[in-house]
Amino acid sequence: MLLAIDVGNTNTVIGLYEGLVLHKSWRIKTDSSETADELALKYKGLLANEPAASGVALCSTVPAVLHQMRLMIDRYFSDLPTVIVEPGIKTGVPILTDNPKEVGADRIVNTLAAHYLFGGPCIVVDFGTSTNLDVVSEKGEFLGGALAPGIEISLEALSERAAQLRKVELVAPRSVIGKNTVEALQSGALYGFAGQVDGLAERIIEEVGPVTAVVATGGLSQIVVNESRTITNHEPDLTLLGLALLFEKNQD
User: Fold this and answer.
1) 6, 37, 106, 252: which is the annotated catalytic residue?
2) pLDDT by residue (tens digit) across 3-34?
3) pTM here?
C-alpha cells in the first residue's frame, strides 16, 4: 500500500493506494505548529487498523509542515521508499512558465493526474484555500493558469470587514434572489464562484481551443460543481492519484 499525503494550506488529505486504486482516504486540518513526533502519533493512529504501507509519496505547499514531515518520515517510516515532490524528482510534467520553481507541487501533481485521466488540453479547477485554474496541454505540459481567492477565505474576509454580515453554511439558497441576509450570502458565494470559474474557463478555452475536460477537485469542489456550466468532471482525489502516478514513475 502506498501512503499518499497532500499537505495543503488548510487541510491535509491522506490516501492509501493499492497500485492506482484508492483503498481509503482521510482529510485532517493542517497545523503548521505540530512537531514530527505529534504528526507521527496522528498518522500512526489513522493507519493502525489498515494494511501496512509499503511506500510514501508526499507533496506540500506549506514549507514549515514539509520540514516536520521530512523528520517524521525519517524517524518513523525510514524503511519505506519515499518520493517527495520537489526539484529533482521525475514528474514527467514539463513546466512552461516564466519561473517553474514557483509552481506549487500540488499543481504539478494535478497536471499529471488530469492528463492521465482525460488527456489534453484540459483545465484543472482546484477549490482550496485559493481557487486555481491550471491548464494542461495536449502533451501533458503545465502551461500556467489563473489564481483567485478561495471560497472560505473570501467569506471570512467579508464577515470580518462587514459588521452586519456573518459566516453562513455553503448550501444552495431557495432562489438566486436571496430573501434574507443568509440566503443573499449563500447566493453570492455559490453562484458567484461558479460564475467566476465559468468566466475564467471560457476565456482559457478561447486561447487554447476546445478542451477534453474541465476537472474540479479540492475540498470545496462539491459545493460548486453542480452549479457550473463548464465543469465536466469531478475528481475529489485527483492530487492523491497524481502522487500515486508520480511514485510509480520514480521506482524505475
Assistant:
1) 106
2) 999 999 889 999 999 999 999 999 999 999 99
3) 0.92
Which H or E element spans position 23?
Answer: strand 21-29
Fold of the 119-238 domain: Nucleotidyltransferase; domain 5 (3.30.420)
Nearest partner of 200 among 135, 121, 118, judged by Cα: 135
> pLDDT tens digits, residue range 159-216?
776 656 667 777 888 899 999 988 988 898 889 999 999 999 999 999 999 999 999 9
Q: Please name every residue paired with 11 in a beta bridge, in sequence order, or none if there are none.
A: 29
Give me the residue spans of the domains in the chain: 2-84, 119-238
Here the cell at position 13 is 488529505
Amino acid identity at 47: L
The phi and psi torsions of 134 (rounded to 5 degrees) equal: -110, 140
134 catalytic residue (yes or no):
no
- Domain 2-84 class? alpha beta
